[in-house]
Specification:
binds succinic acid; four-stranded antiparallel sheet; 36% helix
């Protein structure tokens, strides 16, 4: 039976990067709910923000842009760490083999997105940055001798003893396993699937946030759910294909269904205003024109440039009958990113000893009330490295690490209707625009679902996912009720 020093939960960039940065002397178990490459990180298009070269002036501009986007609710110490450590971690990604896009002279190309006053976003594969990064890191993780990988296994709870995290309970086949280790790192990603429409993959159900909450960890800022302004619009619900903000960074404009540009009515930076403003402006414009979408127009850009720079978007739109070089792209805002999460300090440790978190499930404080585009992949690397560095420097006593198995009778409930009910409520009442009345209605429904679930525990993944969806929905609703003013992604029209 293997013994582990570190359990990493999740296989997006945060999980992969943390695992890779743990010293070879410590044994790591990386657990993921699905296959290794199913994550939000894999789907990231726009890029990764940061400064390749150390420069106080560039660092300061990046900090300023992030503060403006976050409505100054950011933790400044954490933000300085994010920006000042970007150079080291971006270069580390390059050393890991990530092939960022370059010009003919071999210089790395930089793009802009909403809220950035400078071109500081590195991208790869045109608009497939996440895939390029994850595809470079996965083989390294698979071949590193001190890392074991457990796929298709769901962490259903944390094991807490004497106020410390000592491991996880994992549902795998028809067994629940208690796997203990001196350190546990949650890198479970986003919460998108609790909404009807999202850019996230269906695995993103807020599992890490929910299990940390059940264990008593502090969760904050969950009212700040970021809606991406431009997801490809169609009548289907579920995961929606992202039309990267980088398209606006390269000159794309927004038109309402009457064919008029409108961002001048809302912000001086027009289409490159921070993301919360653009989503709220589109919402307003859709309302005023009785429509469920607007358009992104890139027809004025060079067709060859569009096809080379945005190959994924170009092909995906073509599959849906839209030639972006000639046609307007129908888009609408959908859930994209949770700015809050499990509170972590500068080491990445949560309020529970020996429990760490990194990536979207964590709240390091860097994002404030609205994340600046492309800061999230950067955050995965900066906190992943910090967590690993801290753990590497500590001595571990391995004899506490062990695996205990319990056979369970798996039930085959799917809870389809309740899942749809949660998504419907969250979309309608806890979306871009919120009122106290709607939030209270949402709370009534979700608390009933949550109570019923707690009374009738089942041993299957669908049960735990649903429990987590309801738990996270409840946290968001309560946070949204508590914050009476509009700020960043949290927009109260009452
Ligand atoms: C995008 O490509 O528009 C998304 C980038 C991000 O969410 O940071």
């Amino acid at each position: 039976m293997e013994k582990y020093d570190v359990i990493v939960v999740g296989s997006g960039l945060a999980g992969l990067y943390t695992a890779l940065n743990v010293t070879r002397r410590k044994k790591v178990l990386l657990i993921t709910k699905d296959k290794l490459n199913l994550s939000n990180s894999f789907l990231a298009q726009g890029g990764i923000a940061g400064e390749l070269f150390e420069s106080d002036e560039s660092y300061q501009k990046h900090i300023d842009d992030t503060l403006i986007a976050g409505s100054y609710l950011n933790d400044v110490d954490a933000l300085k760490v994010l920006v000042y450590e970007s150079s080291h971690n971006l270069n580390k990604l390059i050393n890991y083999g990530v092939n960022f896009d370059k010009d003919a002279n071999g210089n790395i190309l930089l793009t802009r997105e909403g809220g950035h006053s400078e071109r500081r976003i590195l991208h790869a594969g045109g608009d497939a940055t996440g895939k390029a990064i994850v595809d470079s890191l996965i083989p390294l993780v698979m071949h590193k001798a001190n890392i074991d990988i457990l796929e298709y296994s769901m962490v259903i709870d944390l094991i807490i003893q004497e106020d410390q995290c000592i491991g996880v309970k994992v549902l795998n086949d028809n067994k629940i396993k208690d796997i203990t280790a001196p350190f546990t790192v949650l890198c479970t990603g986003g919460i998108g699937d609790i909404y009807k429409n999202t850019t996230n993959p269906i695995v993103a159900k807020g599992d890490g946030i929910a299990i940390a909450h059940r264990a008593g960890a502090k969760i904050e800022n969950m009212e700040f759910i970021q809606f991406h302004p431009t997801a490809f619009f169609n009548k289907e619900t579920g995961p929606r294909f992202l039309i990267s903000e980088a398209m606006r960074g390269e000159g794309g404009t927004l038109l309402n269904v009457e064919g008029h540009r409108f961002m001048h009515k809302y912000h001086l930076l027009l289409e490159l205003a921070p993301r919360d403003i653009v989503s709220q402006s589109i919402y307003r414009e859709m309302y005023d024109t009785w429509s469920d979408h607007v358009y992104l127009d890139v027809r004025h850009l060079d067709p060859n440039f569009l096809q080379n720079r945005f190959p994924t978007i170009y092909n995906r739109c073509l599959e849906n009958g839209i030639d972006i070089t000639k046609d307007l792209i129908p888009v609408s805002p959908v859930e994209h990113f949770s700015c809050g999460g499990i509170v972590v300090d500068l080491k990445g440790e949560t309020t529970i000893k020996n429990l760490f978190a990194s990536g979207e499930c964590a709240d390091s404080g860097v994002h404030g009330a609205n994340r600046l585009a492309s800061n999230s992949l950067l955050e995965c690397t900066v906190w992943g490295r910090r967590i690993a560095k801290y753990i590497n420097e500590l001595d571990t006593v391995l004899d506490r690490s062990s695996i205990v198995e319990e056979e369970v009778t798996i039930s085959n409930y799917t809870y389809r209707d309740i899942r749809l009910q949660i998504k419907d409520i969250m979309e309608r009442y806890v979306g871009i625009v919120r009122t106290e009345k709607n939030l209270i209605s949402a709370k009534e429904v979700i608390s009933k679902i949550l109570n019923d679930l707690k009374k009738d525990r089942k041993s299957c993944m669908a049960y735990f996912e649903l429990l987590n969806m309801a738990t996270v929905s409840m946290i968001i609703i309560e946070s949204a009720l508590n914050r009476k003013e509009s700020v960043g992604c949290h927009y109260r029209i009452d």
